[in-house]
């Protein structure tokens, strides 16, 4: 799996409009990583349509990014913006916890 980026707006339309900037670190195509990808995409599409940027990084192909973010487990979701930075570890199946942590109403 290569690093991929999912954008919900054309780059020219981006502004400082409280978009969530998220990075999901996974390990290849393990069942837990596959489930995390599906779960976070579903949550973002359902609650954040048009208001998020999601990078999916396979740490086996890009270990330097994982080191730079000081990962201790995968899958890990990092909410970069808006601040404060938050981390979520696991398969992203606890939707209520994610909604609270990502400040989704």
Write up what this structure looks like:
It is a single chain. The protein contains three helices and five strands; from the N terminus they run ββαβαββα. The chain is globular. With 105 residues, it is α+β, with helices and mostly antiparallel strands. The N and C termini lie far apart (32 Å). The longest helix has 17 residues, at 31-47. The chain has one domain (4-9, 18-101): Glutaredoxin. A five-stranded mixed β-sheet has the order 1-3-2-4-5.
Radius of gyration: 13 Å
Name of the CATH architecture: 3-Layer(aba) Sandwich
Contiguous uncertain segments of 5+ residues: 1-15
| Named CATH topology | Glutaredoxin
The share of residues in extended strands comes to: 25-35%
The count of domains is: 1
Describe the largest sheet: 5 strands, mixed
How many strand elements? 5
Mean pLDDT, nearest integer?
Answer: 86
**Spatial ordering of strands, largest sheet:** 1-3-2-4-5
SS class:
alpha+beta
Helix content: 25-40%
In sequence order, what are the helices and strands, one letter per element? EEHEHEEH
Shape: globular
Distance between the termini: 32 Å
CATH-wise, what's the superfamily? Answer: Glutaredoxin
Assembly level: single chain
CATH class, anyone? Answer: Alpha Beta
Number of helices: 3
């Amino acid at each position: 799996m290569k690093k991929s980026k999912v954008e919900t707006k054309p780059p020219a339309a981006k502004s400082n409009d409280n978009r969530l900037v998220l990075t999901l670190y996974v390990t290849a195509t393990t069942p837990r990583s596959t489930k995390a990808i599906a779960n976070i995409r579903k949550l973002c599409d359902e609650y954040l349509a048009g208001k998020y940027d999601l990078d999916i990084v396979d740490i086996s192909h890009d270990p330097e990014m994982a080191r730079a973010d000081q990962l201790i487990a995968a899958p890990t979701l990092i909410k970069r913006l808006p601040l404060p930075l938050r981390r979520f570890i696991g398969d992203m199946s606890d939707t209520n916890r994610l909604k609270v942590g990502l400040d989704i109403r």
